[in-house]
DNA sequence: AATGAATGAGGTTTCATTCAT
DNA sequence: TATGAATGAAACCTCATTCAT
């Protein structure tokens, strides 16, 4: 039941927004009553925090696995991360959008747990760029922190427009984006 | 007064969110009463629509000016757009965040006016890429629609993290991003 | 309207208790809506605090006037206070019961304002007893603090049983109690 | 278990009030679940009634024993009752406060059982005063019903302020109060 | 141009109670 | 004897909106 509530809430928060979705909306969508909601969650914010934690922990896990694979070059790791983020849209896209858009509705206490994790994800990419600079895969004069923000922009923004059921696959987009990031667009 | 209400609302919507900001919050912040608000706006949504329209029209104007400058190459136009978006963060960052985050709270009628304009901005970039492909500035095999999304990701995401009062200037970031987009990061 | 809400609330809190009286009960009893209540009070607790302050300030004023009357002996002042408390039951009895029973429902902040005033009322009686001991009206060996509690017990408890519309008047009860306090009951 | 629930409930009702204490509060405080509560009590009101009955029956028993002791004079009986009420504060103070404050939350049916017992306790004191008047211990012109209320005021009010662990003992307070009631405070 | 009083719908949350196990 | 899941009514409170002045 808790799982069911969480799943439905992610869909609703994605579609209508956190504040715009009432507990009534949530429980109606799964045919239970408000009491049931409060049996499993002590507040609406706790549910939001659950969703945040679950998402960022999952992303960090995925990232960790990729970065720990010593058989991959820095470029390959970068591609793997881009590909992971794109392919996750299908299953985790709603969570991701909630994560990026609704962080504001977390309590200060919850934020103090989430923000370091979010930053960690970005810093890991920054570290990957540094690694690539040192092993000669990437240009030595790159501003790693800004480039990391740029790469995250490319991937995270795709949650706003990419349709996993559309005519172009997540793998294709990942390839286009990785090539753009690595080689640029000029001739 | 209308201007004052709009300005303050943009700040508040940016900080707390549209649904989380009450009319009371708005009028309190400028020391008037709710009646005053409803003298100038017929609803909260009308105010939101005002903010949206003002932002996207301004962006389209800026873009239009850049794209119409025949003295610029495609690359230069691209740089100019990136630079325009970054430098706008200081004055328009709050509006931009409201634009991207709160579109959901517009009525269907308002959306039908806003969405085509938002799409137009992106399609203009797509067209610029096509133009660059044809005049030999950009690689001919680029997938323009996806690349346009990628470029918008880089710039739009910067509204989430770029601090105009920080140690790195908007111009520097624009240069880093344009170089990344044009040349990529590999050696 | 604020006055009306307060008056009705005192009646209802007296009859049913603070927690047992809903905002709905209050507004129904005067034919307005909940919004109206919250236009005048920011919370149910603020209303309770209003009632408390109004009551204790009134009692302290009354007491102050009696104690400041230099034409009265200590005994006469004591009688006047007892009489004042008894005669107040008719108009202030409901407030008094709310005051004694519902203090628990005040916030800590409100309590820190109310408790010193409540204590002041008692300490003023203690001082009156001391005064009577020194001017030879009262026995010199009295334990003033405990006796003050005893006198307040006699008067305050009367709010629980005394019916101002019954067959015995408040003046008669005040006389009986004053005689009991001054002379005791033994032969 | 039933005993444990009752004991904890008395503490909680005393501290926070009946309506302000939830079944959840009660069962949490003893580490069981709500089902357990409803195994022993059919409703929250039944528990409150249990507490009321237990208290008043106990008081009536104590009073009965004192009044039936033919070796005591009326004055001695009066002192014994005052002393009994004061000394009971330590063990029964919480019950007493619940008894006096929360009677309102009993059903009409429960009230019809409790009120006569409460009145009986007072009428027994009234009878004791009459007895003292007739045997020449108390003044013949006393208004017994009102004096009984006065005596109960002195003792019952002490539940509001007397601290059994403070510097003055219950026996000392009982002596001060009995002397005040018998001899008054004037010289 | 602006106010202040009032509304009413809907929000989150609490809680006594039920019941299958 | 005790649990845990679920209910549904009602609690306090918020807020966009209206309207007479």
Key features of this structure:
mainly alpha, 75% helix, homotetramer, DNA-binding, 187 residues
Layout of secondary structure:
The structure is a homotetramer of 187-residue chains.
Chain A (H helix, E strand, L loop, with lengths): L1 H15 L6 H8 L3 H7 L3 H24 L6 H28 L6 H27 L9 H18 L8 H14 L4
Chain C binds a DNA duplex (21 and 21 nucleotides) through α3.
Give a short account of the largest sheet of chain A: none
Average pLDDT of chain A works out at: 93
Q: What class would the helix/strand composition of chain A place it in?
A: mainly alpha
Number of helices of chain A: 8
Low-confidence stretches of chain A: none
Give the strand content of chain A.
under 5%
CATH topology assignment of the largest domain in chain A: Tetracycline Repressor, domain 2
Describe the oligomeric state of these chains in a short phrase. Answer: homotetramer
What is the CATH class designation of the largest domain in chain A?
Answer: Mainly Alpha
Helix content of chain A: over 70%
Distance between the termini of chain A: 55 Å
The CATH superfamily of the largest domain in chain A turns out to be: Tetracycline Repressor, domain 2
Which protein chains are joined by the largest interface, and how many residues does each one contribute?
A-B, 44 and 44 residues
SSE arrangement of chain A, N to C: HHHHHHHH
Please provide the count of β strands of chain A.
0
CATH architecture of the largest domain in chain A: Orthogonal Bundle
Radius of gyration of chain A: 19 Å
Shape estimate of chain A: elongated
How many domains make up the coordinates of chain A?
Answer: 2
Organism (chains A, B, C, D): Cytobacillus oceanisediminis
InterPro entries (chains A, B, C, D): DNA-bd_HTH_TetR-type_CS (IPR023772), Homeodomain-like_sf (IPR009057), HTH-type_Tx_Regulator (IPR050624), HTH_TetR (IPR001647), KstR2_TetR_C (IPR041490), Tet_transcr_reg_TetR-rel_C_sf (IPR036271)
Keywords (chains A, B, C, D): DNA-binding, Repressor
Pfam family, one (chains A, B, C, D): TetR_C_24
């Amino acid at each position: 039941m808790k799982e069911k509530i969480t799943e439905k809430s992610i869909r609703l928060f994605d579609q209508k927004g956190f504040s715009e979705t009432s507990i009534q909306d949530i429980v109606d969508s799964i045919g239970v009553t408000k009491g049931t909601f409060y049996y499993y969650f002590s507040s609406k914010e706790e549910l939001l925090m659950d969703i945040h934690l679950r998402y960022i922990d999952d992303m960090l896990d995925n990232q960790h696995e990729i970065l720990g694979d010593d058989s991959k070059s820095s470029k390959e790791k970068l591609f793997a991360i881009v590909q992971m983020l794109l392919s996750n849209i299908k299953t985790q896209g709603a969570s991701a959008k909630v994560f990026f858009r609704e962080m504001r509705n977390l309590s200060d206490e919850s934020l103090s747990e989430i923000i370091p994790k979010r930053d960690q994800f970005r810093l890991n990419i920054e570290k990957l760029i540094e690694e690539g600079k040192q092993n000669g895969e990437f240009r030595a004069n790159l501003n790693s922190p800004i480039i990391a923000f740029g790469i995250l922009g490319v991937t995270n923004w795709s949650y706003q427009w990419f349709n996993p059921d559309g005519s172009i696959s997540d793998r294709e987009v990942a390839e286009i984006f990785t090539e753009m990031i690595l080689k640029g667009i000029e001739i």
